[in-house]
Every structure is written in structure tokens, then in C-alpha cells.
């Protein structure tokens, strides 16, 4: 696991739980460097003082707020650490709300919360078990990286996860992006629902959870390093043309989705052998025929005796 990026406590009413915070995700993207095309030398970014015209070391650089072009207010790390906030060193749970009331667009990065020390194990487990039995999300406040944030606490396995959340005023409005009102026939809506049902699965499909771009970049780098032929993308299928009939497009999409899952007209269907069942039926017919013949013969003999 990576090192802790923050340490403090969870405040749950009068219960305090010392915790450490570690990142729950990691980025596996391939990084590129900038270089000089003439001699392949690295291009580096250096920080210079505008007045002295000289490069400045990291320990000589501080934070400041620009009030005007000529006025900057210096803000130190000590200033930020001494802000009068109860959340400066605590993740303060303030409410429990229904999960469906939280817009997913507000949910950000996730972080694992680890109990810090043996004394934290019991209250940590208490909160985790309470969250497991509660159908609501825990909303919290915490101050981190120079600002107070809103957070969401949930359970993943046996660990409590903290998600940073956007403030309401940080979400841009989408009102101007929606198309004008359009009448959609009920049949097309039902066909779209059929397509959704055909494409439904219990979990994210394995082939969809593969980072093909990063894999392709890796193959490209390996090929260039070894002086091999560069990989090329497969020729895309020719487009079928502009879609005019939305219902026909939905119907074709349903058919293709069924075929990709082994269903539909063009899917390969393996029927169970029916020879044994047919043989049984034939044998049953023969038995029935013999019985009928025997019954007829018995009837003839009986009629002769009566005569």
C-alpha cells in the first residue's frame, strides 16, 4: 500500500476514531516526456524569479494571493494549519442521507481510511458495521490541501472509504445543453428498452474493463524499441449509411446484440439429439399395433364360437 497522504480522526458524534488516509486508486497511464527534436535532449521546466532573472529553489518558493497586480498577500503553511476549523484534523460526520439523493457527478476520488493504532480498532469497526446496516450515506466535512471539503463515507470490503465531493456551486448547469423537446413514439422507447435488456449484465463485462489504449501504447513502444514493424489498427467496417429509420436501427441493434451473446437468427444453436426419443415412440407404436392385432384376432375367435 502507498504511504498515508493525510492523518487525523473521524468524528462520529462524541466518538473519535484516529485514522490514516491512503489513496484508493492509482494511475497506470503511460507518461511521455518532452524532448528536443534535434538532439533528443530532455526539455525541463525551471522556475525563475521575475525580478532577479535567476532560477529559484523549491525551499525559496511560497504561496501568495494576488490582491492586485502589485500587491500579493503571503500565506504560509502555518497560517493554513491554524485556520479556525474543527475539520482541520478531523473528518466530521454531519449527516446521513439516502444514497439516491446524491448526484454521482459530485463524487470524486476515493481514499481508504485505516485505523491508526490499536485503540482505534474497536470504534473503527463499530462505525463500519453501523454503516453496513444503514441504508444511507454518511456525509462529512474535512479540511485538506488548503480548503474545506465535503465527503461521502461508504464501505468497501472491511474498510471505510472516503470520497471527496464537489460543492453544489462547483457543478455547472446543463440546462442549455439539452435538445429541444422531441416527440418519441412509444414503440421506439419500448424497442430501446428491449435493447437495454439484451445488453444487460450483472457486472461490467471483462472485455470492457480493459485499457486498450495503454496496451496499444505499450505495444507501440516495444515495437519501436526492437525495430519491428509498428502495429496498425484493423480496417474499420464500412458504415451502413445514414440512419433514417430509428426503429429499424433499434431492431438491427437488438439483433446484433443477441448474436454477440449467442442468441438470434444467425447464432449457432446446438439441439439435443432426439433419436432415442423417436426410437421410443416407434417402439411404442409397434407395441400398440401388436396389441391391436391381438385384440382383433381374439374378437374373431369369439365371434366364431358364438356362431
Helical fraction equals 25-40%
Q: State mean pLDDT (0 to 100 scale).
A: 80
Strand content is 15-25%
**SS summary, helix count:** 6
SSE series: EEEEHEEHEEEHHHH
Oligomer: single chain
How is the main sheet built? 7 strands, mixed, barrel
> Poorly predicted ranges (pLDDT <50, ≥5 residues)?
267-307
How many β-strand runs?
A: 9
Query: In terms of structural class, how would the helical and strand content be classed?
Result: alpha+beta
Q: What coarse outline follows from CA principal-axis ratios? A: extended
**Strand order, largest beta sheet:** 1-2-6-9-8-7-5
Polypeptide structure, described:
The chain is built from 6 helices and 9 strands. With 307 residues, the chain is α+β, with helices and mostly antiparallel strands. Strand 1 and strand 2 form a beta hairpin. The strands form 2 sheets. It has a 7-stranded mixed beta barrel. A two-stranded antiparallel sheet has the order 3-4.
Q: What can be said about this structure in brief?
A:
With 307 residues, the protein is an alpha+beta fold. It has helices at residues 77-81, 121-133, 186-199, 212-225, 246-260, 275-306; strands at residues 6-12, 15-23, 63-68, 71-75, 90-98, 107-115, 136-144, 147-156, 159-165. The longest helix is centred in the last third of the chain and has 32 residues, at 275-306.
Amino acid at each position: 500500500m502507498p504511504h498515508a497522504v493525510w492523518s487525523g480522526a473521524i468524528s462520529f458524534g462524541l466518538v473519535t476514531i484516529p485514522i490514516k488516509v491512503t489513496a484508493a486508486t492509482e494511475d497506470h497511464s503511460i507518461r511521455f516526456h518532452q524532448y528536443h527534436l534535434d538532439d533528443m535532449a530532455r526539455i525541463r521546466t525551471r522556475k525563475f524569479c521575475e525580478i532577479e532573472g535567476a532560477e529559484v529553489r523549491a525551499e525559496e518558493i511560497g504561496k501568495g494571493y494576488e490582491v492586485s497586480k502589485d500587491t500579493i498577500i503571503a500565506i504560509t503553511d502555518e497560517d493554513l494549519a491554524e485556520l479556525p476549523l474543527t475539520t482541520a484534523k478531523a473528518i466530521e460526520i454531519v449527516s446521513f442521507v439516502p444514497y439516491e439523493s446524491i448526484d454521482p457527478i459530485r463524487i470524486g476520488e476515493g481514499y481508504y481510511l485505516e485505523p491508526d493504532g490499536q485503540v482505534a480498532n474497536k470504534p473503527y469497526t463499530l462505525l463500519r458495521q453501523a454503516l453496513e446496516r444503514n441504508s444511507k450515506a454518511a456525509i462529512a466535512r474535512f479540511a485538506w490541501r488548503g480548503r474545506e471539503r465535503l465527503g461521502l463515507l461508504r464501505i468497501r470490503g472491511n474498510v471505510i472509504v472516503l470520497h471527496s465531493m464537489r460543492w453544489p456551486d462547483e457543478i455547472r448547469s446543463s440546462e442549455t445543453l439539452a435538445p429541444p423537446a422531441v416527440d418519441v413514439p412509444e414503440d421506439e422507447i419500448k424497442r430501446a428498452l428491449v435493447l437495454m435488456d439484451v445488453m444487460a449484465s450483472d457486472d461490467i463485462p471483462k472485455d470492457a474493463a480493459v485499457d486498450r489504449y495503454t496496451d496499444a501504447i505499450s505495444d507501440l513502444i516495444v515495437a519501436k524499441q526492437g525495430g519491428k514493424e509498428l502495429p496498425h489498427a484493423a480496417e474499420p467496417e464500412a458504415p451502413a449509411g445514414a440512419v433514417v429509420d430509428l426503429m429499424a436501427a433499434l431492431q438491427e441493434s437488438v439483433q446484433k446484440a443477441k448474436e454477440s451473446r449467442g442468441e438470434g437468427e444467425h447464432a449457432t444453436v446446438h439441439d439435443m439429439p432426439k433419436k432415442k426419443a423417436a426410437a421410443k415412440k416407434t417402439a411404442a407404436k409397434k407395441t400398440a399395433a401388436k396389441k391391436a392385432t391381438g385384440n382383433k384376432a381374439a374378437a374373431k375367435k369369439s365371434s366364431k364360437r358364438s356362431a
